[in-house]
Write a structure and sequence with these properties.
The complex is a heterodimer. Chain A is of the alpha/beta class. Chain A has 22 helices and 21 strands. Chain A starts with 9 loop residues before the first strand and ends in a 7-residue tail after the last helix. By secondary structure, chain B is mainly α. Classes of the chains: A alpha/beta, B mainly alpha. Chain A: Belongs to the ABC transporter superfamily.
């Protein structure tokens, strides 16, 4: 293959991808056309299920099992991809087209050292002589921003943090110096500061002339690095244009929804919250949950102790939202479980309504548990897989022996609170959409009549527009029922929108806390400043846009 | 259920009815010896021929279904019940109980299975019941281990954690969420074991550790046929076919049920 100079690197016209299933043919991609030039970053943006991943995978012949790919033109560097069969794909994959996937842990072989993974494309395509492979691997890892690449190359994927794994994966995809890098949601699983480093790495490669096809549902990421954006919905492109134009003045309603969903977070708008009657303004909110000097340590196999939570004190007032910010591993989740009384602290204590957990035993403690409920990041795994939605909602009501007629009434009321139609009741959770599942989880958490709900990253697995809906439900429920939230998230936009007060955690300690506006607008701790600066610039750009979504 | 499994399901139904009410299938007494007609080949009068004592082989296979299938089934049920109780106890009663129970299971597993069955039968005396108990003792640790690991896996499941939050007691959470969700893999092991247990019980009868003669039992019939194999093939072939068909039917239908359970859970 010789570089063909002038033409576009990728040219696609009228691409369709169909999947024959038992229930008829599913059209995943319905006639899309796009091009990618050398040194350009092209983004395909859309919600999950819009067909964006399948579109990108068609370029390397990996659209999926049984996929029927058709196109008027499907060319890579002048070569017609429609003619490529079997072995010929392999000359393309890894060598000329690199692939980075969302889930770095899932795409790295757990039994192979990171260095071996990066070396694979080097050996498979004989990029460098065998004796130089090890040196090249170290060079690539270092270039991808991995500190101490010599020792990291000898470690296994599970010994690396999420950000390091993603960087190792990018190093592996770039090893053969491909002309095109396909990055499918490369930063979705990462925290803000890490996300920023990974984006910087991708941008750097574009400087080297590598083209990037970026697949994302995250408009913030897209705004950060893309030159040209295609917006995808139901297998079609509904809008495209230069990134700045599409994001700042979207014309299609769907694009507006996507933009509005992100902008809503960034503006920190909390409709109905600014009234002086909001609990934090009144300053008289009754305290429902208090943690004093919590410490939780875990013994590591062989390597001493790991302190997950170190001397943490927080209070939550009735009807108030306490945002807990921090990167993964900062002890947010452990704190949530301590507050719920599911874990015993090694020191300190948690008081629910003035009564300490450790003073409660047996039936009393079980009854008190109903006062603190939890909403999980992945609602599906928090439901018994055998249960229908009705059984899921009835379970907390059965636990306190609510009579049958009363249960039916309460279930109907719960559905209304979260905006679910009664016809979901007969279905099992896995038959519901992501947004419906999280609504169901909120309804279930409300069922025992709790004073506090601990929300552990409740929207981070959802698309932006669905996120906005679920956050609306949470706000609405709080206004109606006066329930307090402990809202754990690494997403500053989400925290900003929902919280009255914020605590920032790092390495198990609270480094900063206070009123939401004060912490966000005048951060004091350097770590808080770094977190706020690390949010992709899209949000800051949109903070200035007046109006937004009505 | 796929069409290809219908015949095997039909076989299972026929075998079950045969074991329950053998007189529906034949009017001949399986133990009636006709000393004038030893080792008669299959004929209109004796469909599958006769054995060395002139007993009708078809009647003996029909009447042999009950002991042949019951020992294996009984062994699986006993092993299942004991294994689940021990496995759940090991997973739920804390570290000391877990250590004691798990190491005891290791001890049972470390003794060769055949030796253990012989030991049990030698202590309790041969017979259908002791054969079933012996086989159950040998296969119980497998059930206990699967049950224990399933319970440990589910103990930290988010929906189990959530259920604690609703105020259920620990026993209630186990009954409502842990046991029903652990049932799939444990029952899968049971259906897979059933075929092996039927073969194993026939083997015990073959070496004379099953039901006492003259009870018709497929493994024992095979054993009787050995001496006359040069003269007559039918006393060996037909009981052998009966065992094979029964095991295949149990295995195929069991595998299908397993796949159904897995599909429902994943």
């Amino acid at each position: 293959m010789t570089p063909a100079g002038g033409g576009p690197l990728v040219a696609v016209r009228d691409l369709t991808v169909r999947f024959p299933t038992r229930h008829g043919v599913v059209e995943a991609v319905r006639g899309v056309s796009f091009r990618v030039d050398r040194g350009q970053v092209v983004a395909i943006v859309g919600e999950s299920g819009s067909g964006k991943s399948v579109t990108a995978r068609s370029l390397v012949g990996l659209a999926g099992e049984g996929a029927r790919v058709g196109a008027a033109e499907l060319a890579f560097d002048g070569a017609d991809l429609r003619q490529v069969r079997g072995r010929a794909w392999r000359a393309l994959r890894g060598r000329r087209v690199g692939f980075v996937l969302q889930d770095a842990l899932g795409s790295l072989d757990p039994l192979r050292r990171v260095g071996a993974e990066v070396a694979e494309p080097l050996r498979a395509h004989r990029i460098v002589p065998g004796r130089q492979v090890d040196a090249e691997v170290v060079r690539l890892l270092g270039e991808a921003g991995i500190p101490a690449p010599e020792s990291r190359a000898r470690q296994y994927p599970h010994q690396l943090s999420g950000g390091l794994r993603q960087r190792a994966l990018i190093a592996s995809a770039l090893a053969a110096r491909p002309d095109l890098l396909i990055a499918d949601e490369p930063t979705t699983a990462l925290d803000a500061t890490v996300q920023r480093q990974v984006l910087a790495l991708l941008r750097e490669r574009v400087g080297d002339g590598t083209a990037v096809l970026l697949i994302s549902h995250d408009l913030g990421v897209v705004a950060e690095i893309a030159d040209h954006v295609y917006v995808m919905k139901d297998g079609r492109f509904v809008e495209d244009g230069p990134a700045a134009a599409v994001l700042e003045s979207p014309s299609h309603p769907h694009t507006k929804t996507l933009v509005g969903a992100v902008a809503g977070h960034a503006r920190g708008a909390r409709p109905g919250r600014v009234s002086p009657s909001a609990p934090e303004a009144a300053g008289t909110a009754r305290e429902v949950l208090r943690a004093e000097g919590l410490v939780k340590r875990y013994t590591l196999p062989g390597r001493g102790e790991f302190t997950a939570v170190e001397d943490v004190s927080v209070t939550v007032g009735a009807g108030e939202t306490l945002g807990v910010v921090g990167e993964s591993g900062s002890g947010k989740t452990t704190l949530g479980r301590l507050l719920m009384g599911l874990l015993e602290p090694d020191a300190g204590r948690v008081l629910l309504d003035g009564r300490p957990w450790d003073g409660l035993r047996g039936p009393e403690r079980r009854a008190a548990r109903r006062g603190v409920q939890m909403i999980y990041q992945h609602p599906l795994s928090s439901f018994d897989p055998r249960y229908t939605a009705r059984q899921i909602l009835e379970e907390p009501l059965r636990a306190d022996r609510t009579p049958r007629e009363e249960r039916d009434r309460r279930v109907a009321l719960l559905l209304e609170h979260v905006g679910l139609a009664p016809d979901v009741l007969g279905r099992r959770a896995r038959e519901l959409s992501g947004g419906q599942r999280q609504r169901l989880a909120i309804a279930r958490a409300l069922a025992p009549g709790p004073q506090v709900i601990v929300c552990d990253e409740p929207v981070s697995a959802l698309d932006a527009s669905i996120q906005a809906q679920v956050l609306d439900v949470l706000e609405d429920v709080q206004e109606r029922l006066g329930v307090a939230y402990v809202f754990v998230s690494h997403d500053l936009g989400v925290i900003r929108r929902l919280s009255h007060r914020v605590v920032v955690m790092k390495d198990g300690r609270v480094v900063e806390s206070g009123e939401m506006e004060k912490v966000f607008d005048h951060p004091e701790h350097p770590y808080t400043k770094a977190l706020i600066d690390a949010v992709p610039r899209f949000s800051s750009r949109f903070r200035r846009v007046p109006g937004g979504r009505a | 259920m796929p069409r290809s499994l219908w015949p095997w399901t039909a076989v299972l139904v026929v075998l079950a009815v045969m074991a329950a009410v053998p007189s529906l299938f034949t009017g001949i007494d399986p133990d009636a010896a006709d000393l004038n007609a030893p080792l008669h080949p299959p004929s209109a009068e004796h469909w599958l021929g006769t054995d060395q004592n002139g007993r009708d082989l078809y009647a003996r296979i029909v009447y042999g279904a009950r002991p042949s299938l019951l020992i294996g089934t009984g062994a699986v049920l006993l092993a299942l019940a004991a294994g689940v109780v021990i496995g759940v106890a090991a997973a739920q009663l804390g570290r000391v109980a877990d250590q004691v129970l798990s190491r005891s299971l290791d001890v049972v597993l470390s003794v060769p299975g055949l030796l253990l069955v012989f030991l049990v039968v030698a202590v309790l005396g041969p017979g259908s019941g002791t054969a079933a108990v012996g086989l159950a003792v040998v296969s119980m640790p497998g059930f206990a281990r699967v049950a224990r690991s399933e319970v440990i896996r589910l103990r930290s499941a988010q929906y189990v954690e959530a259920a604690h939050g609703f105020g259920w007691s620990r026993a209630q959470v186990v009954a409502r969420h842990v046991l029903p969700n652990a049932a799939g893999p444990v029952l899968a092991l049971a259906t897979v074991s059933l075929g092996a247990m039927i073969v194993a019980s026939s083997s015990l009868s073959f070496v004379g550790l099953g039901p006492r003669p003259p009870t018709a039992e497929w493994g024992a019939m095979l054993s009787d046929s050995r001496e006359f194999l040069a003269l007559a093939w039918w006393p060996a072939v037909f009981p052998g076919v009966a065992i094979t068909v029964a095991v295949l039917a149990v295995t195929f239908v069991g595998q299908h049920l397993n796949r159904r359970v897995e599909g429902r859970l994943s």
